[in-house]
Specification:
By secondary structure, the chain is α+β, with helices and mostly antiparallel strands. Helix content is 31%, strand content 11%.
Length: 262
């Protein structure tokens, strides 16, 4: 051969030559596009008819359950009353009887706690001893327990009458307080005597009271007052009122000397 084909050593296949079968391509033409398959549409359901209520409709508020709603609201509003320390009290002394609010403020005898009660009798006097126990049939002066009374919310009259009513309670139970406190009071520490818990009693006065008491002790409040030149019931009442005002005051004679033993 000569010319361009000879220089490049290129073999030009003849038309009769066939490609070997081993070099045949496995390529197949892709399937022609047929478009997106149609999604079957949901046929609308026929509207269902509600079953008829054969019960006759009530007239008035019952037509829409008005009474039932009112009863449910009342049941939600009427919450159970929480228990208070006043539930254990049986007897109390009236501190105030307010005719305008129909509320009685009374001082419990067993714990010296101030409580508020609904009043049944407007003629109940200050200082009167009334029953406040759980037996409602015996409550002639008060009704329900309204809750605890706070010192800073008492009227001026109730604040001034509280020490007097407390002193009256001590004088009526003087035998108990003579035996449980004045005849057995001793040193609280090396520097303080129990008599010094009373307002106005210092170390010198406390030692004098101990010497006068001796081994026989005091027989009554009157004998104690005359021999020691004090008003024992008034001083003890002031201490009780101070403990009512200040719950952190220690030691607490209201817890050590109460309730009054029969």
């Amino acid at each position: 051969m000569s010319g361009f084909s000879r220089d490049r050593n290129i073999k030009v296949p003849k038309k009769t030559d066939k490609k070997p079968t081993s070099h045949q391509s496995n390529y197949l033409p892709s399937r022609p596009a047929e478009g997106r398959a149609e999604v079957p549409k949901k046929s609308p359901k026929p509207p269902q008819s509600r079953p008829r209520n054969n019960k006759p409709r009530a007239q008035g508020n019952n037509r829409r359950g008005g009474n039932n709603r009112n009863q449910n609201n009342r049941q939600r509003q009427q919450k159970p009353r929480r228990s208070t320390p006043l539930d254990d009290e049986m007897w109390a002394r009236v501190i105030e009887n307010d005719a305008k609010t129909n509320v009685i403020v009374a001082l419990g005898e067993s714990k010296m706690m101030l409580g508020r009660y609904s009043s049944k009798n407007s003629d109940t006097a200050v200082g009167e001893r009334i029953y406040v126990g759980v037996d409602s049939t015996k409550r002639t002066a008060v009704g329900d327990i309204l809750g605890m009374a706070k010192m800073d919310r008492l009227s001026n009259g109730a604040t001034s009458d509280l020490p007097l009513v407390t002193q009256l309670f001590i004088e009526e139970n003087q035998i108990h307080f003579i035996k449980s406190f004045f005849n057995i009071a001793g040193p609280l520490s090396l520097k303080q005597h129990a008599f010094e818990l009373l307002p106005g009693i210092g170390k010198k006065k406390a030692l004098q009271m101990v010497e006068i008491r001796g081994s026989s002790g005091f027989t009554s409040i009157e004998q104690l007052n005359e021999s020691c030149s004090i008003d024992a019931a008034e001083l003890l009442a002031k201490r009780f009122v101070a403990e009512i005002e200040d719950k952190t005051l220690q030691p607490r004679l209201t817890e050590l000397l109460l309730p009054v033993s029969a």
